[in-house]
Fold each of these.
Amino acid sequence: MSNTGVLTSRGAVNPLSPDQRLLVVGGGYTGQHFAERLRQLGADVVVTHRRAAAAAGELPFDSSTGLLPSAAELQGISHLLVTAPPDRQGQDPCLSSLKPLLDELPLQWAGYLSTTGVYGNQHGEWVDEYTPPAADLLPRSQARLQCEQAWLNSGWPVQVFRLPGIYGPGRNSLLALQRGDARHVHKPGQVFCRVHVDDIVGALLHCLQLAATQRPSIVNVCDNRPAPSSELLGYAAHLLDCPLPELHWFEAVQGSMSPMALSFWRDNRRVSNGKLTKELGYALQFPSYREGLQACLKAEALD
């Protein structure tokens, strides 16, 4: 392993040289956090935005309307991170719209943010990067798996990062409790995996620092502690010193849940991060939701 590897995003150095430029396709929660951290480290980063009149540090891109950046605007792009989800047809919007432009670039790294949903329902068992996807994937997970394969077959040096539930500042159960819209539901034996957004950023920076030959094509990025949602909510209530909402058993409330909510509860698995933390040597900043929620509490001054 390269001795210049980044162990955490807080101790990171700029992984790009002065003549390199990174494009983030999809300026959502994770994409913006990653871009902001890279800029803090002095990297040249641009993020796509769905408007023609892009601001500084932005490029116009909207596959649904045909809005594309020009070849001149993509000049110098050497690294790429794709955070955009599949479109309504299940296709990757970046590949379907930008590939001819990207083919003209000397891409040295392309990261694709996927989901651990591609493992499907494993009935609470542990999975890793060698676990085959379940046969009965949810439609959105099947679309992600197809997009993964498209990226891996693109001919570029691609890394797929499979992510579970993402939380962090501005997106966590502490805020849900304060807003009064947290649901306290328990399903025996059900666990969920999570990751703090700063550990996604840290893992990406870590992999960017590795030699190309040391970058696995697929990496799970999650914390060490799969846990029931009721356990996490209980800890959040403890940190806020507030009462928990009324407990509902899943069997009693599933009839009132939306199809999306029901699909959230259908899959049950424990995702291993051994490749990231043991083989690649990344040290999690937030090994569990406990450390992560404590950091959110301080960041948002909720106490």
Amino acid sequence: MTVNVEAYFKEVDEMPWGKLFYRLLWQQLDQADLGAVEPLKVLDFGAGFCKTAAYLAAAGHQVTAYEPNREIAAHRYQTANYRFLSGDFAEVKIPLQHEQYDLILLHNVLEYVEDRNEILDFLWSLLVPGGRFSLVKHNPRGRIMVNAVLRDDPAQALAELQGKAGQSVNFGKVIDYTNEWLLDWLDEKDTAVTGDYGIRMFYGLSQNSEIKFTEDWQENMFRLESECQTDAIFKKIAMFRHFLWIK
């Protein structure tokens, strides 16, 4: 997997659409019932630039962040104290296998790995009874909307609708998996979704980038996305879906 690290970091750190993603995600985490334990022991698996790890650490939680890509890790946020791990999956399993966590984050990771079941099963084993799991995934319908509307590329949208693999601007090929696959995995674990949100339903559909740098647009778009994030219809066209469940 080839990653355009500089472009990806700029999108996360500077662009209003990157900032909106994290603002909405953090609001959803803050509003979730994460249990009575404070501070939480948190594992952010596939933490990217560790922006969410730093956010939770700054809030007082005990955070471990794991990012296998060392080039990405070199740009990570270090605005708060958290434990950081790198290396491949086989390596990181060794220090983690005897640990337990109250909250595990897996955000936009499974689209880029082949061993989904192995990773999910391993992380499930690290979650305490009553612990929470937060998973963010690509939503294929949302990417089809982006291709058809934002990128003016109905041919690509049609190809993805017919089963062609999608493309991430920064990460390349996206290996999609369905919501139904995830729900079947949860059913095998005898648990169910407790939170289901859409992220980026609207703010990625306009090509007018200039207006997106205005405070008025950002605040109103945040309010609009927040109002619609649990709407059953709008979630279907969101670029991302955020699922929460309890062990």
Amino acid sequence: MTRQTMTVQEAADYLGVSTDTIYNMIREKEIPHFRVRRRIFFTRSAINEWIREQEQQVIS
């Protein structure tokens, strides 16, 4: 079974940005995420949907 969640580092690698960028986006509530206690996670499906939404904004 494939894991559906990503850590901050994995999300940064997936998006091709730095972890600092990811933390800034979290602080500004620009990227979908959730917390388990103090740890931050992302679901692959939410990130993929967020990417599609970002693409649509550029096209519009």
Amino acid sequence: MVSNLYSIAECQFLDGFLSRAIYNNDVLIGFTMFGLDPDDGNYWIYRFMIDERFQGQGHGYHAMLLVIDEIRKASNRTDMIMIGYKPDNELARKLYRKSGFREEGISPWGEMLAKYSFA
């Protein structure tokens, strides 16, 4: 797993990527990073995490809806958003499915890939 600090630094070198802190009122509870992937030209959510102390309380779902909405409003948005996660991460699978992502299969690097379609 990549640290949030690494992701924040990485975001400085990836054109078109944004990083966002996720808050519950004034408490920092998570982090996300997303943007246009230079390899396939689609929006990807590279990082999405909610601190384990705040998981299972609906924060991830609401934060994901905000990310999807921000991408939907982007002038350069594509017709889909991709995300990858460990195949055995059931919490992620449930969250992404509830948010509208559909599994596409295992990537060559071993992650489960899921796609959200605007169309």
